[in-house]
Amino acid sequence: MINTLKSTRLLTSSVSPSPSSLLPLSLSLREMAVLKVMCLFLYALMMHDAQKANGAFSAETQKMMDEANKNGPYVGLVIPNLFEMNPLLQSPSFTSSNFTIDFAGIISKKSQSYIVFPLSLCLLVFSSSHGCFQGRRFRFGTIAEKEVILVMTGLGMINAGITTQLLLSLFNIEGVVHYGTAGNLNPSLRIGDVTIPQYWSHTGLWNWQRYGQGPDDELALEEDGDYTREIGYLKFANYTANVTNCINYDNLLNNAWYQPEEIFPIDGTPEEREHIFWVPVDTRYFEISKRLEGLELERCLNETTCLSKTPKVATVLRGTSASIFVANIAYRSFIYGKFNVTALDMESASVALICHQQRVPFIAFRALSGGVSAESSDAAKFISLAAKNSVTVVVEFIKQLSANQALIKSFPPEE
């Protein structure tokens, strides 16, 4: 070991000095020995993961996936959280096949149903090993004789996007149905109502303008086509509070301009970006969903705890998402006034964007659990009722979907 290190020192000292070549000279023999062991360990780890990557799935898991896909195509049900999934698992309309495939960062010795997700790739996605061991479970079953796969995403846009892409990449999916609860921005709707937006946007992508510049000033990188002023902006000075005896006032936070997403459709040119802000749901799915507007929904949690009015199903123009929980009334009012948005959540736009790029039919159902109505203070109390109502609508939609395959085929394919 010492001879090797001496040779390394001689070789290093014989070349022109640079910051990288001078670094070993500052280490002791003991430190370099430790460094070499660490390098060998990292090299072995990389080679181990490379071997895993060459065969992404175990033979048993691949066989299970192949068998599962023979029973497809499936409708993928993408669900944010367990409290929204459990009402469906408990619904008499859902028949479980008692078959699951778990997606994880390691192979479980207790189960042969785990998909191997190479650690090196996982680290690139999650930036830490912690996320690599938070798996995804794909549950198989039927609703009204329609084959379905249920998968929970977890909170936020990134979780929803990763889970949706996994679903579409691994399984034979004919369409995606997303459901859950959402905040309400529309004063004409109430807690427990289930909304079906025709369009979704991501309102968490901003170009935050420097102080001193305004609407007439070009944004940074706007000239290159990276950013735009076409969608609109939030002026923070308009929401300054407790200002007295002052006609003109400003805010150092200045303006935040909303931006469209960069997308790369599966049928587009690789690395040639497109932009989109309002992502449409599938036209055929939306037409079928209009038939649900008279559906009877639950009003009461129990015999003594009820909403003042029976909830309803409503098709609406727009919903929006961002990885931000918005309890702020001023911002809720701004978003509603600016974009005419009804449902506000943290996942739907991500699912919509993935499906749009993959050209897979998509629709989302969001039950309102809080917002601008007089009952909004009861959001926590009635959130389980809202989740149950969203499941009621989803189940009925799947039934309609199963019964109207001819109608779906009569529509021209989505562009």
Automatic annotation (TrEMBL):
One GO process term, biological-process aspect: nucleoside metabolic process
Domain Nucleoside phosphorylase, residue spans: 134-399
Signal peptide range in chain numbering: none
InterPro entries: Nucleoside_phosphorylase_d, Nucleoside_phosphorylase_sf
Annotated GO MF terms: catalytic activity
Protein name per UniProt: Nucleoside phosphorylase domain-containing protein
Organism expressing this protein natively: Liquidambar formosana (Formosan gum)
